[in-house]
């Protein structure tokens, strides 16, 4: 066997190992979600359900039919999407200004943004809980959207301003000479070119919002605004010492699916090197 | 179509340094004007002030009779080709060319007609559906021009459009631009640091140095009647030779000998002490290749050729000479201003290709001393302009 082939086999083995490492927990959750509650309680160590221990789609049906969980899915999607859209829109404008304009306090804006992003989430929960109750936005969508936005904006701004800086000034100058207003130049030329950055920022923001548990459990009290991670923790069966593991697993799978779909969708948009050909490279 | 009048245009940046200082140029309707100069001379800044991408500190910019100082670029209706083309990479060639028309919300049919016409003119038909990233440098350049010509703009502005192309393509595109400009008859301002482009393309050429307009004239006039040392040294390749000279009794004394001068030139320069004489390489010849009756014995001198470059149609010979430190310093400054470097004081002479002169040879050279220019070493002014 020559060295080249050996290399290739080695790479392949490495890939498989890493994939196993990453995907085993996911696979296990999926496996668990198809086992019946009894089988889990009795101990069902196999990866595939033992005969008679399978639940088919029953766990999923139960999860979906749970009124609270359906509501949680809706909350999660709504809150995460709103936070993402608002955050990305704001970050795009801010990052453009940061990248293009010289203004007083530019460094201050950037460092402050970074400091905010570094704040431990837990340290803010207490004050927010108090404030939100005073403002009357405790247990509402907006009460979660605001903290999600403030934690994801800094990263989005930093990511996007890096992208904007890469776009040559001439692009928008050419557009302006061609008859575009500043806003048209921004919308028709700059934003499409920064699209990979916009989608990167969008994914990061969505992840943060979708996966958050601390805010979700602390700033909500009913299904009015409770997102999926928090809702899952309320999945308690009849016996508090015997949690419905298979039901939880099904819930977890349901919570994972939208994120995977989203990544697959956005991944196509994140095409590296979109600016190639704009200028002599 | 429009005239462009620049009246006492000044551009000062934050530090107060005038990048463009009191420049006045009138560009006639349909004229091809070249702005040329070494890097940092303010030529691009001036162009960007015409198009509106730079604010004008003072002075008036009048396009087609209308003062445009305070108009945004989009309201000036000028078309510009950028040095790096600035094509929109996310749009196809077709959409790139159509972009200005779409912004004006023209009907689809008109857009299609104009884009197809431009693409035919520029030979881009087969590339219309491709993205700029998949095009070669020359094709991108043509797309950038296409975007300019669909517009019915008042004038074309080019900012060093050919500097990113390789030498061969540059020559072709240069001809292409000249043809297109003549065909469309549109007022054009073209910035370049390449003097071949300046000399071949322009109806008139404006030479700039450190923000100041040095001379505005036809290419021929610039070459034959430079008003000062800078223009003389900047225009022409290889550049004009500058030699220390003194004029007395109708004769000029150069480091190589004393030669006769025409009466009018001698009269203007006599008794002025040490001057700088300028003479172009082609005004020398190897005596051995000249007809015997053409050789004037008073205008020949012996020279030692250091290096020779044979180009096929002609050859350059380099003849080093010694000059006083003061003259050397001045020549070095002059070369630096023109973006080049003079390492030693030497004469560059262009000889007939038939000349058998070799490197490290002693040859007899003829100097056409009637063609000498004389410059005041302090002010750099050409004392014999017009003669």
Can you put this structure into words, describing what you see?
- The complex is a heterodimer of chains A (281) and B (387).
- Chain A is an all-alpha fold and 281 residues long.
- Chain A has 13 helices and no strands.
- Chain A is globular and about 75 Å long.
- The two termini of chain A are 41 Å apart.
- Chain B folds into two domains: 4-229, P-loop containing nucleotide triphosphate hydrolases (Rossmann fold, 3-Layer(aba) Sandwich), CATH 3.40.50; 234-375, no CATH class.
- Chain B has helices at residues 43-51, 93-103, 108-121, 137-149, 167-184, 195-201, 219-224, 229-234, 263-269, 325-337; strands spanning 4-12, 18-27, 32-36, 58-63, 66-67, 78-81, 155-159, 187-192, 204-209, 212-217, 241-248, 251-254, 257-260, 275-279, 284-286, 300-305, 307-310, 314-320, 346-352, 361-367, 373-375.
- In chain B, strands 6-7-8-3-9-10 form a six-stranded mixed β-sheet, with helices on both faces. In chain B, strands 13-12-11-14-21 form a five-stranded antiparallel β-sheet.
- The longest helix of chain B has 18 residues, at 167-184.
- The model of chain B has no long low-confidence stretch (mean pLDDT 88).
- Classes of the chains: A mainly alpha (281), B alpha+beta (387).
């Amino acid at each position: 066997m020559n060295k080249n082939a050996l290399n290739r086999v080695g790479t392949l083995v490495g890939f498989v190992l890493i994939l196993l490492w990453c995907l085993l927990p996911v696979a296990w959750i999926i496996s668990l979600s198809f086992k019946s509650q009894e089988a889990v309680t009795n101990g069902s160590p196999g990866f595939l359900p033992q005969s008679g221990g399978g639940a088919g789609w029953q766990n999923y049906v139960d999860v979906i039919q749970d009124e609270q969980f359906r509501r949680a899915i809706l909350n999660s999607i709504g809150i995460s999407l709103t936070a993402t859209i608002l955050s990305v829109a704001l970050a795009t404008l801010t990052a453009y200004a940061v990248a293009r304009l010289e203004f007083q306090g530019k460094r201050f804006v950037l460092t402050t943004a970074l400091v905010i992003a570094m704040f431990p989430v837990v340290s803010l929960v207490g004050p927010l809980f108090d404030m939100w109750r005073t403002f009357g936005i405790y247990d509402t969508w907006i009460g979660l959207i605001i903290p999600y936005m403030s934690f994801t904006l800094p990263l989005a701004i930093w990511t996007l301003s890096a992208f904007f800086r890469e776009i040559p000034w001439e692009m928008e100058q050419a557009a302006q000479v061609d008859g575009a207003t500043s806003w048209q130049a921004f919308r028709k030329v700059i934003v499409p070119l920064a699209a990979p950055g916009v989608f990167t920022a969008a994914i990061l923001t969505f992840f943060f919002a979708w996966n958050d548990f601390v805010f979700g459990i602390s700033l909500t009290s009913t299904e009015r605004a409770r997102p999926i991670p928090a809702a899952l923790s309320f999945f308690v069966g009849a016996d508090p010492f015997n949690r419905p593991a298979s039901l939880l697993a099904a819930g977890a799978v349901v919570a994972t699916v939208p994120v995977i779909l989203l990544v697959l969708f956005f991944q196509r948009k994140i095409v590296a090197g979109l600016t190639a050909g704009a200028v002599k490279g | 179509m429009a005239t462009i009048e620049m009246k006492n245009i000044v551009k000062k940046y934050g530090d107060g340094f005038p990048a463009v200082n009191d420049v006045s140029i009138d560009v006639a309707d349909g004229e091809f004007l070249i702005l040329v100069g070494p890097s940092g001379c303010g030529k691009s800044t001036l162009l960007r002030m015409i198009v509106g991408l730079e604010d004008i500190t003072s002075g008036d910019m009048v396009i087609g009779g209308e003062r445009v100082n305070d108009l945004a670029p989009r309201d000036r209706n000028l078309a510009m080709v950028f040095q790096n083309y600035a094509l929109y990479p996310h749009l196809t060639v077709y959409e790139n060319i159509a972009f200005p028309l779409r912004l004006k919300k023209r009907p689809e049919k008109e857009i299609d007609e104009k884009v197809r016409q431009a693409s035919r003119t520029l030979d881009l038909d087969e590339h219309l559906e491709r993205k700029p990233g998949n095009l070669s440098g020359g094709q991108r350049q043509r797309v950038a021009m296409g975007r300019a010509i669909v517009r019915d703009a008042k004038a074309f502005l080019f900012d060093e459009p050919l500097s990113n192309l390789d030498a061969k393509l540059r020559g072709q595109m240069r001809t292409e631009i000249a043809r297109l400009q003549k065909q469309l008859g549109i007022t054009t301002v073209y910035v370049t640091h390449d003097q071949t482009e300046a000399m071949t393309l322009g109806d008139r050429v404006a030479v700039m140095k450190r923000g100041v307009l040095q001379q505005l004239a036809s290419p021929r006039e610039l070459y034959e009647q430079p008003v000062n040392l800078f223009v003389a040294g900047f225009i022409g390749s290889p550049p004009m030779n500058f030699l220390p000279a003194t004029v007395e009794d109708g004769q000029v004394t150069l480091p190589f000998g004393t030669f006769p001068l025409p009466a009018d030139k001698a009269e203007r320069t006599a008794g002025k002490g040490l001057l700088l004489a300028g003479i172009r390489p082609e005004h020398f010849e190897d005596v051995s290749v000249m007809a015997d009756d053409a050789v004037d014995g008073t205008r020949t001198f012996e020279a030692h050729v250091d290096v020779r470059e044979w180009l096929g149609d002609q050859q350059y010979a380099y003849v080093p000479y010694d000059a006083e430190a003061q003259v050397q310093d001045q020549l070095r400054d002059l070369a630096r201003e023109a973006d080049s470097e003079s390492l030693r004081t030497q004469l560059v002479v262009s000889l007939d290709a038939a000349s058998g002169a070799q490197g490290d040879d002693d040859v007899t050279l003829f100097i056409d001393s009637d063609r000498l220019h004389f410059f005041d070493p302090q002010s750099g002014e050409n004392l014999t302009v017009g003669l």
